[in-house]
């Protein structure tokens, strides 16, 4: 998820407003209009929820052997495994 300013511009996760909005409204939330404070709070609440609930399902994690977990490694095929090749040579393998 990418954090966005109230105007829609993408901003760093540690900011509340983009540069242009800071120039217009300032950096002091107490001086912002009520609608802007509400909007910034709402965006931050959504951002915090997404960040705090960024979990992996059990089906895609595995133990790393040290008591922690990591995403399962992708299974890599070795050798020639193109679909065309397998169908062309199926008669050689009883198929």
What does the model show?
The chain has 95 residues and is mostly helical. It has one domain. Helices cover 34% and strands 6% of the residues. The protein has 3 helices and 2 strands; from the N terminus they run ααββα. The protein has helices at 19-25, 34-52, 83-88, and strands at residues 61-63, 69-71. Strands 1-2 form a two-stranded antiparallel ribbon. Strand 1 and strand 2 (69-71) form a beta hairpin. It is elongated and about 75 Å long. The model has no long low-confidence stretch (mean pLDDT 80).
Give the secondary structure arrangement, pairings included.
Layout: H1 19-25, H2 34-52, E1 61-63, E2 69-71, H3 83-88
Antiparallel strand pairs: 1-2
Detail the poorly predicted runs. none
Shape: elongated
| Portion in helices | 25-40%
Q: How many runs of DSSP E, i.e. beta strands?
A: 2
Integer tally of domains: 1
β-sheet strand percentage: 5-15%
The average pLDDT score comes to 80
Characterize the biggest β-sheet: 2 strands, antiparallel
Strand order of the largest sheet: 1-2
Order of helices and strands: HHEEH
Counting helices, strands and paired strands, the structural category is mainly alpha
Q: N-to-C terminal Cα separation, in Å?
A: 47 Å
Tally of individual helices: 3
Gyration radius, in Å: 25 Å
Task: Classify the oligomer.
Answer: single chain
Give a brief description:
With 95 residues, the chain is mainly alpha-helical. The chain has helices at residues 19-25, 34-52, 83-88; strands spanning 61-63, 69-71. Strand 1 (61-63) and strand 2 form a beta hairpin.
């Amino acid at each position: 998820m990418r954090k966005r300013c109230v105007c829609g511009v993408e901003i760093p996760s540690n900011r509340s407003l983009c540069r242009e909005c800071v120039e217009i409204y300032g950096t002091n939330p107490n001086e912002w209009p009520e609608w802007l404070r509400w909007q910034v709070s709402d965006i931050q609440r959504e951002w915090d929820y997404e960040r705090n609930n960024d979990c992996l399902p059990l089906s895609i994690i595995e133990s790393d052997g040290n008591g922690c977990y990591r995403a399962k490694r992708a299974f890599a095929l070795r050798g020639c495994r193109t679909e065309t090749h397998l169908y062309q040579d199926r008669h050689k393998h009883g198929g």
